[in-house]
Amino acid sequence: MQKNVSPRVHAGHHLPEITGISLDVLERKLREFGQSAYRMRQIMNWIYHKHVHAFDDMSNLSKNLRTTLSGNFALGRLEQVACVKAEKGDAAKFGFELRDGAGIIESVLLYDDRRRTACISSQLGCNLGCVFCETGRLGLLRNLTQGEILGQLLAMNEYLEKRGDKSITNVVFMGMGEALANFRHFRNAVDYLMHPDAFNLGGRRITVSTAGVVPSIERLMREKLNVNLAISLNTYSNELRDRLMPINKKYPIEQLIEVSHRYFEHTGRRVTFEYVLIKGENDSDAAAAALKKHLAGLTCKVNVIPLNNCDYSSEKTPAKADVVRFVKKLHSFDIGATIRTTRGNDIFGACGQLGHLLLHKKSAAYQNI
Ligand code: SF4
To answer: Is 351 noted as a catalytic residue in this protein?
Structure first.
């Protein structure tokens, strides 16, 4: 439910968020307070499993420790200002206001039989300027902190818990922003995603999507994060990619393919290439054939995403038959390809649509929350 949409600075926002410090720093801080590793587990349990909103609610900690914690940290919960559910019930979009009043970030919860997938944001806006993306139109306002990245998951887990549902099973960094351009906070958040006392998710349940920041993909390998990698490729030629995704001028397709080979060798995880299908631009048989040449010999998968309605183009959304034809063509070249089911289109929660709350505060979607 929408509570209040006006940005404001929250009380106590000068204190660092306890969810915003790395695991190492948390451990060190607690040692400085004379606390054991066991206490750290208790505190994490209160934050990540019992979803408390105040240190004072951590009833198995001494009064002294609770006072110390509240004097040194904020709990780092995000304020939910919007929650809207897709008509089919297979997606829900959330808007969260940042504590410093910098803006509203969006996250999407996707439901299927077994999975509860959280699509989360890593930046407020984005400066990579992909022409089909609403978030890109905002420019980069700022990076999200580790606490703001984790705060989205905490809020969605609490939402699921209140409905007697299971917790988040998968996390995809495909919301607002380019996670690999905010590497340190992304990386430290992943430590919590994997930690048994926090979100306890294995690397195969975490996917980071990138527009193709090659040095950060190399850093992923160096730091052995071992998460799934999705590269937003979207086209078959540098000429077209330069136009759709300006980052291509710095890291062209050949570099992306080369680093993908290395990523597979390094991690054993096949890379997913996201391919937003745009009518009349990248959906021809010739495009599929060119794609085949690029991907020859690479263990990978292509995820075809029909362009969603956005300001870039209502006429460029491909017809269903054309999407199927394109995927069949890829199959005929022995390329593993799937069609991403579009969920959340009606709540502006589908691919390329996040940032809508910030761009169009007076839109119908916002009012209907
Ligand atoms: S698609 Fe991703 S990288 Fe490109 S502008 Fe949007 S958020 Fe940024």
So the answer is: yes
